[in-house]
Amino acid sequence: MADLVVRGGTVVTPDAVFRADIAIEEGLIAAVGPDLPGTSREIDATGLFVFPAVIDAHLHFNEPGRTEWEGAATGSRALAAGGGALFFDMPLNSTPPTVNAREFDRKRAALEASSITDFALWGGLIPGNLGELAGLAARGVVGFKAFLCDSGLPEFPRADDLTLADGLREAARLGLPVAVHAESHELVQGLSRRMADQGRQTIRDFLDSRPVLAEVEAIQRATLLAGEAEAKLHIVHVSSGFGVAAAAEARARGVDVSIETCPHYLFFTEEDVERLGAIAKCAPPLRNPIHVAALWEKVLEGTVDLMASDHSPASPEMKCGPFWQAWGGIAGVQSTLAVLLDQGYHRRHLPLERIATLIAAAPARRFEITNRGRIAPGYGADLALVDLDASFTLNSEDLLQRHPVSPYAGACFRGAPLMTIRRGELIYNRGTITAQTCGTLVRPTLT
Ligand SMILES: [Zn+2]
Fold first, then answer.
1. Rounded to two decimals, what is the model's pTM?
2. Which of 44, 297, 421, 432 has the fewest C-beta atoms under 10 angstroms from its C-beta?
């Protein structure tokens, strides 16, 4: 008999939207279909839509080492409140960063003790750690993250072209992707220096120091090197339609490249940065409305593969002071699904099936997490129950992250995540965290 039945909801998969019950046994989906037999524990999903829970493939919970910025305890609760059950933590801004097996073990232990959602870990690719990648792969990283420009943290230096080329070859040998922050170091540094020399330090100047051209150039270079190495490449947080097009051109040439964007590049524009200040500062920066519209077009036509939050919070003090010196990073882990429902489904007719792909099926497939990300028998019972028509305001007191500092605070959304189930356990229920157990490490199943 099932441990739990989610009854009467409308199930959303990448292929279809249909009314069905979901029976769960020992954390796995046992059956999906009409009129499944009853059991002692049932959740009434009548009138609700049941999505695969969000798999956030890119965020920074900064644990261990910088938990005063965020931590997995608070971050995972915020993720759960937004319909998420699994995240992939980046190798920075924890400190020391996850660039060898020892740091992997330290982070794993910290997250197993604090996270209420499941998690996977990215390893880092930095100059000098090529010999560590095999050890990280053996531990179970989903891939290796490299910066093509300054990361903002001295302990995580950028990958020069030779480091990237060597890292891509080694990652290909290990069967894992390399994820790149694609902005041209040469262009960004050169423009930033020129502005400093000219005393140009406004928000507008910052935006102009990181142009779309810097993103496109870095994507072209990274895809060229990945093609040469026959490696899998993942471009994180692509901020413009031109950036997506550059990656898609490489894909058409046969390069194995996947494209990620973040809700903030679709929800905000550079006018919001000028209005909100450092709270909306990130790199690449938010773009003008023409670029935002072009990026939406790429999402709607299906060229963007997956959506991740790139939740990258800092302490509130680091968001004060002069804009250029303020920490860059947007704290949005709780609102990925809400943005896609409101701005995607309701405003732009983005199909629900496509949302299920962007938030869950695609990240699971790309990073070879084989039994997650879908609502089908045999898959982990990770579900997000959503009231598609309920409108809500995301107030700062609703944010479960460590510091309630987010450009999304005060935003209104139509489409509300109400409940989150992780491996059959109800971990979030209408404003309350109900998790009884901690999350566990998830590894890719390499073929
Ligand atoms: Zn990031």
1. 0.98
2. 432
